[in-house]
Amino acid sequence: MRPGLARPSMVTLSFSHTVQQPNGRPSMAKRVLSPTQLDNEFFKERVNRTQTFLGECIATQHSSQIKLRQSTVGIAGAGGIGGAIALRLCRLGVGALKIADPDVFEISNINRQIGASYDNIGKNKASTVGQMAFDIAKDTRIEVYEDGISHKNAAEFVAGCDLVLDQLDFSVIDEKFALHDAFHESEVTHTILACSVIGWSAHLYKFTRQSMHIRKWYDPVDHSNIV
């Protein structure tokens, strides 16, 4: 930071609405971390060294950075890949993230998942990664879905997203179908990228509204288990 450049004055606004689970207990549906104001000079300074990767000339770099700042990315799954991507997107200057994951961190996650640590064992992955992402610069809006993705909330999660990252476990079929069904109904979301690590290999798939639906690609009976 250049001498004399003040840090932005930010306040975390945290709120949620709840839904009633079948067991009668309330469940956290969504939590929002949002800056109360944006400091443009601070933002320009913090993304200055990454704009080089956004184009060959200054004008292209600038316009691409504006697009990123005006973009919303949904990340379904905040484990190994999803958690790392969330933090990287914040550093790149993406304006808003939606992060969904119902799981909690376990000891075995520490070796590979960026949000896993001694102090975070037992904590919700989406909430933990969301807070870590927000704390990077406190100028990114973060929506946290601690209940993960379901047929009830998939449309809300996808709504407004320019890009969705499907980081759900490849064996979680029903939730994947819900996410992709909502994507195909969306008029805003352009693409779903799905990346899975299986054994020593990584698989990256790109889905558009014109491409094969994941239901046809998986082709199992709903609610079945492929593992």
Automatic annotation (TrEMBL):
Protein name as it appears in the record: THIF-type NAD/FAD binding fold domain-containing protein
Any GO BP: cyclic threonylcarbamoyladenosine biosynthetic process
Domain THIF-type NAD/FAD binding fold intervals: 62-212
GO molecular function: tRNA threonylcarbamoyladenosine dehydratase; ubiquitin-like modifier activating enzyme activity
